[in-house]
Design brief:
single chain, alpha/beta, 5-stranded mixed beta sheet, 6 helices, globular
Length: about 170
């Protein structure tokens, strides 16, 4: 079933996470989401006292200084609640399911909160979109730069969906 065959642009939501690194000691430092209707938000997460891992290579990619997390980041409980409030019971797509699940689980477990939304792999969109639209989506994504900031990365996916949908691609 091609949900894009409907007369209205469907709501598809993407989430992205920037982290302190890639190892088992890494943790989420920035969360961002965006949907095909133009909504989105992003925020930094203040590390807990025992979240000490910091990879300078990761910092060179996302450009977020650890000090900035302590100055502007939300407490993990506030971050988890904010995500649940914003995403509700939606299925939310991500581009790195294993890593994103790991970091979200770390955030939510430490916050003592359960996810309200369901996390799904980007490639599960194959079940919702036609082959033609998936090819268009992949082509558009190749031409869009990867900002390596959570909200901007999520917006990149939402924009790629919208661009390939007739009458909405000019947003």
């Amino acid at each position: 079933m091609d949900i894009l065959a409907a007369s209205d642009l469907p709501l598809i939501t993407f989430i992205d996470i920037e982290a302190s690194g890639l190892g088992l000691d890494s943790y989420p430092i920035e969360l961002g989401w965006a949907d095909t209707l133009g909504n989105g938000d992003g925020f930094l997460v203040r590390p807990l006292n025992d979240w000490t891992h910091w990879d300078p290579v990761a910092e060179s990619i996302h450009g977020i200084a650890r000090d900035e997390l302590f100055e502007r980041g939300l407490h993990v409980a506030d971050a988890a609640e904010k995500l649940n409030d914003m995403l509700g019971f939606e299925t939310v797509f991500c581009d790195a399911l294993d890593s994103d699940q790991f970091w979200l689980s770390k955030l939510f477990e430490n916050a003592g909160v359960e996810f309200s939304f369901k996390l799904a792999d980007f490639y599960q969109l194959h079940k919702l979109l036609s082959k033609e639209h998936m090819l268009s989506l992949q082509h558009v994504l190749q031409d869009l730069p990867i900002p390596h900031r959570a909200q901007a990365d999520a917006e990149r996916y939402a924009k790629a969906i919208v661009t390939g949908y007739p009458n909405h691609g000019t947003r």
